[in-house]
Amino acid sequence: MDFDKMIQLIAQEVLKKLQNIPKKGIVLFTGGNIGFKESISQIVKLKESGWNLRAVLSKEAVKSLDVESIKENFDEDDIFIDGKNSDTKGLYSEIDALIIASLTINSAAKISTGVADTLPTQLAAHCIMNGTRIIAAKDACDLRNPSRHQLGYDKFPNSYFQMVKGHLDKLESYGIKLINAQNLYDYLLNSKDVFYKENEIEEQVMDMEFKLDKRIISREDIVSNSMKKKIVVPINAMITSLAQDIAREIGVEIIKR
Fold it and tell me: Is 142 left (phi over 0), alpha (psi -120 to 50) or beta?
């Protein structure tokens, strides 16, 4: 079998196993009403599919959103309100994704400029800096959203539009994925690059060390373990010239240890 094809098949199998592992995430609610109902329905579907989720609410979210609908879908211990919960250290533990369920123009501006003066913006900054995937529902900060026309909030000057667009462009440059609220579930469920890029898995598979406990290392030993980048052999092992040649040819490092 072709070496590259073998690595691809191994990566696919690893990916399947990883995708079956329950995912952990934090859902941020800021004050955006547009797309809120759609976000809630998507969060429900994520939880039903096995996601372990906790909710973080900004002060504005408490004032302007239907908090009861949030409480109906999260355990009381899994809801954190900015300024009310003193123990939030657990929120900074390793998670698979930060989901901003209702990104507002205000929150987008703060996050894009590095302002972290609230629990939600602190979490966003933390996830940006440690490389955690961030997915944000853009409905509430999308000035072209049809709901704005219905609400009468579509008479802004072009300069204002460009200012908001600049903040959103900056978020995307940080790696934040901006999508419509109604697509949160499908994106998180089906987009493998949210968690594991295929080339990252290939690198992990190939970088794994394989211990070969033999005194004489032949060409066949190298070929049969060619999916490994590193083969560890005993310090006193004898490596045949053919084994050394094939190792160099396919990029396998032989380590005496």
Answer: beta
Outline where DSSP puts E strands in the chain: 24-29, 52-57, 79-81, 97-102, 133-137, 177-179, 209-211, 216-217, 230-233, 238-239, 253-256
Whole-number Å distance between alpha carbons of 182 and 42: 7
The span from the CA of 101 to the CA of 40, in Å, is 8
At 196, list the tokens: 């594991």
Per residue in 49-86, pLDDT (tens digit) is 889 999 999 999 999 999 999 999 999 989 999 988 76
Integer Cα distance of 172 and 166 in angstroms: 10
For residue 38 the two structure tokens come to 């759609």
The one-letter amino acid code at 108 reads A
Q: Would you place residue 93 in the very low, low, confident or very high pLDDT band (cuts 50, 70, 90)? A: confident
Contacts of 105 by beta carbon, 8 Å cutoff, 6+ apart: 140, 141, 164, 167
Cα(first)–Cα(last) distance of the chain, in Å?
A: 30
243 contacts 222 by C-beta, under 8 angstroms: yes
Q: 3-state class of 116 per DSSP?
A: coil
Nearest residue to 54 (alpha-carbon basis) of 91, 84, 23, 19: 91
CA angle 136, 142, 143 (to 5 degrees): 165
